[in-house]
């Protein structure tokens, strides 16, 4: 009976104001069959430091966070 744990980013969403939401699933497998799963959700705002963020999430942030999106987000926060 071998128990293993895997972590995957199973969901990434970009909101209309540029916030990136992502979910990490932690799956517990027993002999290759999933017996449990938990989730951890995180959010990132435009131009936020991406140190330590999974590479697939960083790629989405880099694509979504254009100069216009960052400026609009910052303007909405200053209003």
3D architecture notes:
With 79 residues, the protein is of the alpha+beta class. It has 2 helices and 3 strands. The chain has helices at residues 55-64, 67-78; strands spanning 3-14, 20-30, 33-44. A 3-stranded antiparallel β-sheet has the order 1-2-3. Strand 2 and strand 3 (33-44) form a beta hairpin. The longest helix has 12 residues, at 67-78. The protein is elongated. The model has no long low-confidence stretch (mean pLDDT 97).
Offer a quick outline of the entry:
The chain is of the alpha+beta class and about 80 residues long.
Beta-strand percent range: 35-45%
**How would a crystallographer describe the biggest sheet?**
3 strands, antiparallel
Tally the helices: 2
The stretches of 5 or more residues where confidence is low (pLDDT under 50) are: none
- Overall number of strands: 3
Shape: elongated
- Report the end-to-end length measured between terminal Cα atoms: 58 Å
- How would you classify the helix and strand content by structural class? alpha+beta
Computed CA radius of gyration, to the nearest angstrom = 16 Å
Helix content: 25-40%
Task: Walk across the major sheet and give the strand order.
Answer: 1-2-3
Output mean pLDDT.
97
SSE pattern, N- to C-terminal: EEEHH
Topology of this structure?
Blueprint: E1 3-14, E2 20-30, E3 33-44, H1 55-64, H2 67-78
Antiparallel strand pairs: 1-2, 2-3
Keywords:
three-stranded antiparallel beta sheet; 3 strands; 79 residues; alpha+beta; 28% helix; single chain
């Amino acid at each position: 009976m071998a128990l293993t744990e895997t972590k995957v980013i199973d969901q990434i969403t970009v909101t209309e104001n540029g916030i990136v939401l992502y979910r990490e699933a932690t799956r517990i497998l027993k002999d290759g069959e999933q017996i449990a799963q938990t989730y951890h959700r995180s959010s990132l705002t435009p131009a936020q430091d991406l140190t330590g963020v999974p590479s697939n999430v960083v790629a989405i942030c880099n694509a979504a966070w254009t100069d216009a999106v960052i400026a609009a987000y910052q303007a909405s926060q200053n209003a």
